[in-house]
Amino acid sequence: MATRRQFLYAGGVAALAAGVLPRLFDTRAVAAPAAGQQSFEVTHTDAEWRQRLTPAQYHVLRQEGTERPYSSPLNDEHRAGTFACAGCGLPLFSSKTKFESHTGWPSFWEPLADAVGETRDTTFGMLRTAVHCHRCGGHLGHVFDDGPRPTGLRYCMNGVAMTFAAQPA
């Protein structure tokens, strides 16, 4: 016979699995981006965003999704140049601030001036800082305080949310 503690533990595990686990692996829309509650210089209807972006870009930029780690070619991009928003083309990061974080996503220690905005993200029971494009509000990734000098920050970005333009030789 199960003890009360075992019963409560099993119930808690079942509730957690029913509520959290499906959301972790759900690639469908669950909510509008938090940044979407602000007004931005570049705006489109949902149908227009779907037409302008690939399904993967739409999932990340408009639904706050996350690409699989090590899936973006931009993770291995080491040329001099600029990383820009895939939604509106706003330059976001210089290659001079990119570093290898070994996380599976392109990481930077500093964005370009006036390129990104930040919002509080409490999904999945964590407190994080989400990063979005300052011009269109597209979700880019998150910023953490475990980066290198001089800022100590790690802007962990989804590669699919960005494009790269190499600097002319």
From TrEMBL:
<dbReference type="Pfam" id="PF01641">
    <property type="entry name" value="SelR"/>
</dbReference>
<dbReference type="GO" id="GO:0006979">
    <property type="term" value="P:response to oxidative stress"/>
</dbReference>
<dbReference type="GO" id="GO:0033743">
    <property type="term" value="F:peptide-methionine (R)-S-oxide reductase activity"/>
</dbReference>
<dbReference type="InterPro" id="IPR011057">
    <property type="entry name" value="Mss4-like_sf"/>
</dbReference>
<dbReference type="InterPro" id="IPR019546">
    <property type="entry name" value="TAT_signal_bac_arc"/>
</dbReference>
<keyword id="KW-0560">Oxidoreductase</keyword>
<dbReference type="InterPro" id="IPR002579">
    <property type="entry name" value="Met_Sox_Rdtase_MsrB_dom"/>
</dbReference>
<feature type="domain" description="MsrB">
    <location>
        <begin position="46"/>
        <end position="167"/>
    </location>
</feature>
<protein>
    <recommendedName>
        <fullName>peptide-methionine (R)-S-oxide reductase</fullName>
        <ecNumber>1.8.4.12</ecNumber>
    </recommendedName>
</protein>
<dbReference type="InterPro" id="IPR006311">
    <property type="entry name" value="TAT_signal"/>
</dbReference>
<dbReference type="InterPro" id="IPR028427">
    <property type="entry name" value="Met_Sox_Rdtase_MsrB"/>
</dbReference>
<dbReference type="GO" id="GO:0030091">
    <property type="term" value="P:protein repair"/>
</dbReference>
<dbReference type="GO" id="GO:0005737">
    <property type="term" value="C:cytoplasm"/>
</dbReference>
